[in-house]
Design brief:
The chain has 263 residues and is α/β, with parallel strands linked by helices. The protein has a single domain (3-195), classed as Aldolase class I (TIM Barrel, Alpha-Beta Barrel). The chain has helices at 3-10, 28-31, 40-47, 58-64, 97-102, 119-136, 155-168, 181-186, 202-214, 224-227, 232-245, 249-261; strands spanning 20-24, 53-56, 72-76, 78-79, 92-93, 107-112, 140-144, 172-175, 192-195, 219-222. Helix 11 (232-245) packs antiparallel against helix 12. It is globular, with a radius of gyration of 17 Å.
């Protein structure tokens, strides 16, 4: 890797332990106003100090994030479909690498839809993004999308999608935790971060975090399981305790309860 690429990667995955706490707030690009993310600024501000990086769109970054923020930015650059549209997999690149550079992003992210009717266009978009990113020392994070019409959250599919993303040149892969997740990690030659997915109880989300790291993931990119919690700041602190301090899921949940009980 060139120096610039290495430097940007180090702002997403911490070099001292190879771990990452990413805060995902990019849901609005296809969901619109999402519960507890209706006003992005008020959601992001109290959580940002505890995230290594924030994943979001350029529109929310420009309108809702203080430029003095110390976090690194992973910019969502794919889109073009919505929850009310015909097919969520019909995505393309919506933000240029040049704009990502203007916004001082440390990485750029897009989704791939392996197994969908738009598989080819999303994989070619990933290839194009890797080519452009390489020119400028910009890491690319590939998100392996799942759904009823394509792959489910099982090791065989997720290993397939993650390996394809890495083969095309993604520097980081974001995917889902599943049974036999070790097989997904072993077959992917680049770091994997695990998506939080839909909101689940805090105890379960912390167990998901712990199990993901135990299986070899570099970290998590959580959104709804943090900011849809009734106690979002204690929740992200508990997640961070697992990722960066090797806490068990049980100890992290006890911390969450303790912090949540304080006024």
């Amino acid at each position: 890797m060139d120096w610039g690429l290495k430097n940007r990667m180090s702002k997403i995955i911490r070099p001292e332990n190879g771990r990452a706490v990413m805060l995902a707030v990019d849901h609005g690009y296809f969901l619109g106003p999402t519960s507890r993310l209706e006003v992005p600024r008020t959601t992001i501000a109290p959580l940002a100090p505890y995230a290594d990086s924030i994943m979001l769109t350029r529109g929310v970054l420009r309108s809702s994030v203080d430029p003095s923020i110390c976090n690194s930015i992973v910019l969502r650059v794919s889109g073009g479909a919505s929850i009310v549209g015909e097919d969520l997999s019909n995505e393309g690149i919506i933000t240029s690498v040049e704009d990502a550079l203007r916004l001082n992003a440390s990485g750029i992210a897009l989704s791939i839809f392996v197994g969908s009717k738009h598989e080819r266009q999303t994989l070619l978009a990933l290839s194009e993004l890797v080519n452009e990113g390489q020119k400028h020392g910009m890491p690319v994070l590939a998100v392996t999308a799942v759904g009823k019409e394509i792959g489910q959250k099982d090791a065989r599919y997720l290993a397939l999608a993650s390996r394809i993303a890495a083969e095309i040149g993604a520097h980081i892969v974001k995917t889902y935790y599943c049974e036999d997740f070790e097989k997904v990690v072993e077959s992917c030659p680049v770091p994997i971060v695990v998506a939080g997915g839909k909101k689940i109880p805090e105890k379960d989300a912390l167990e998901l975090t712990y199990n993901s790291l135990k299986a070899g993931a570099a970290g998590v990119d959580m959104g709804r399981n943090i900011w849809q919690s009734d106690h979002p700041v204690p929740m992200i602190k508990a997640v961070r305790e697992i990722v960066h301090k090797d806490a068990t899921a049980k100890d992290a949940y006890e911390l969450f309860k303790k912090l949540s009980s304080k006024k």
